Task: inverse folding
């Protein structure tokens, strides 16, 4: 059974009118530019507009004031690779097959999956991936094989190491005493120990990551303190080139920060009251402001949709290098709200009303069908798990019927949110046990998931288990 049919919303007359208005956007009008900024391991409460008193983010706060700030926005998985695959495909990990985290030399996102870049490029979009990829580092998995015209970035998390099969540019830069010969020796060691990460880390190779352009390493080890600036510099340059070519653009911009190890440039190092973690977030904030100013200066901002969000909740247990989920429980790797609920802001001047706050239950998987609507591109002939949010974005204050959201762990649906209710049949920890009794929360009354209501509402458990059963059978 197709879950998109099972959970199709009942459109009100107002919803139909809004839907018609979106569809009526002139077919000859230039499609919108799209910029997605997806940070790494940033907690829900790590922006000023989300309650942080120690991390100063004036430009993102302003972006929120100029657009929609979401308070109930969820990623499709609480871990890097699976989360990113879902954003780019509009599908839960049970469908796209990315279950957790890829390490160098692992598999990657199947080339048979359709990414947003592959979807938009036939529509005439220039497409760029800039920053962390983390969906496979072999040539067939890299961004330029998955619909992106250009790529600059680290192909996985910044705490990893050189991959076993990556090619080296003839003019690659080697830093900190490294030479090509030494780097090739390290790569050979990784290749011979690809299944033994402990041995690779014991060799001292951890945190020494390559910077790739296209499908070649151009810098090793990457100068991580300068990456945030360089990523945004490249994005601005790409925007200018696409505009000169009179093409709409899709920029997928994914800073390495604030994933550990933390790095900030000299301009921001030691400036935040929140320490190095705050330095990294405040640096991202500054460059988001640069990007928005650049769009305005080029006359592009009124036709550019910009999304800012994090790929999952904070990686707890890292001391001062840990972000904050605020009042929400737990963090990265868990299916509690601290792992899945993230800050999210969408800005599109003249189209999305400014100064709005949405408490609608929405997710990164909803971006694919939403952008399809805004770009007037027919949906692909494959199962999508997301739902079109265009009507809600154009009128955030109008009634909105949220659809059930499924909590994923290791590629399997292990929980569900429907309305205010959240069911975790075996709890929300990273390592689930069938012996763990069910947990039921009313997120409206108890967003911190402190009071398990399972014993008081057996009928609600049956109802939510039925939703999980229907969804599981649809896969």
Result:
């Amino acid at each position: 059974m197709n879950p998109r049919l099972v959970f199709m919303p009942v459109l009100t007359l107002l919803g139909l009118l809004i839907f018609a208005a979106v569809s009526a956007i002139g077919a000859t009008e230039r499609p919108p530019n799209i910029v997605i900024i997806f940070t790494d391991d940033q907690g829900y409460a790590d922006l000023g507009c989300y309650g942080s008193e120690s991390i100063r983010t004036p430009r993102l706060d302003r972006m929120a004031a100029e657009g929609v700030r979401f308070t109930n926005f969820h990623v499709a998985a609480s871990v890097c690779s699976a989360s990113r695959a879902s954003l780019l495909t509009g599908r839960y990990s049970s469908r796209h097959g990315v279950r957790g985290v890829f390490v160098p030399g692992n598999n990657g996102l199947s080339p048979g999956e359709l990414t947003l870049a592959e979807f938009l490029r036939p529509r005439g979009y220039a497409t760029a991936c800039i920053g962390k990829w983390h969906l496979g580092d072999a040539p067939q998995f890299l961004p330029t094989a998955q619909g992106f015209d250009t790529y600059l970035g680290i192909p996985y998390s910044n705490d990893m190491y050189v991959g076993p099969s990556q090619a080296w540019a003839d003019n690659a830069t080697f830093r900190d005493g490294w030479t090509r010969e030494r780097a090739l020796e390290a790569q050979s060691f990784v290749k011979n120990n690809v299944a033994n990460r402990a041995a690779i880390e014991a060799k001292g190779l951890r945190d020494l990551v390559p910077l790739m352009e296209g499908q070649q390493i151009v810098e090793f080890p990457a100068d991580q303190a300068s990456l945030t600036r360089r990523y945004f510099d490249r994005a601005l340059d790409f925007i200018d080139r696409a505009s000169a070519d009179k093409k709409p653009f899709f920029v997928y911009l994914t800073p390495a920060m604030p994933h550990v190890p933390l790095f900030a440039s000299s301009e921001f190092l030691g400036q935040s009251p929140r320490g190095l973690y705050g330095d990294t977030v405040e640096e991202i904030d500054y460059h988001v402001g640069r990007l928005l100013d650049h769009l305005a200066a080029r006359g592009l901002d009124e036709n550019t949709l910009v999304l800012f969000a994090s790929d999952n909740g904070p990686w707890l247990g890292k001391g001062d290098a840990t972000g904050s989920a605020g009042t929400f429980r737990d963090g990265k790797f868990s299916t509690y709200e601290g792992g899945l609920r993230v800050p999210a802001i969408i800005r599109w001047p003249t189209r999305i009303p400014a100064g709005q706050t949405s408490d609608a239950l929405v997710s990164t998987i909803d971006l694919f069908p939403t952008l399809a609507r805004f770009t007037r591109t027919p949906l692909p002939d494959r199962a999508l798990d997301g739902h079109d949010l265009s009507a809600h974005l154009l009128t955030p204050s109008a009634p909105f019927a949220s659809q059930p959201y499924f909590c994923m762990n290791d590629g399997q649906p292990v929980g569900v949110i429907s309305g205010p209710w959240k069911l975790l049949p075996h709890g929300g920890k990273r390592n689930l046990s069938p012996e763990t009794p069910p947990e039921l929360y009313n997120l409206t009354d108890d967003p911190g998931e402190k009071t398990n209501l399972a014993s008081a509402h057996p009928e609600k458990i049956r109802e939510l288990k039925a939703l999980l059963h229907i969804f599981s059978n649809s896969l």
In short: The longest helix spans residues 275-297. The radius of gyration is 22 Å.
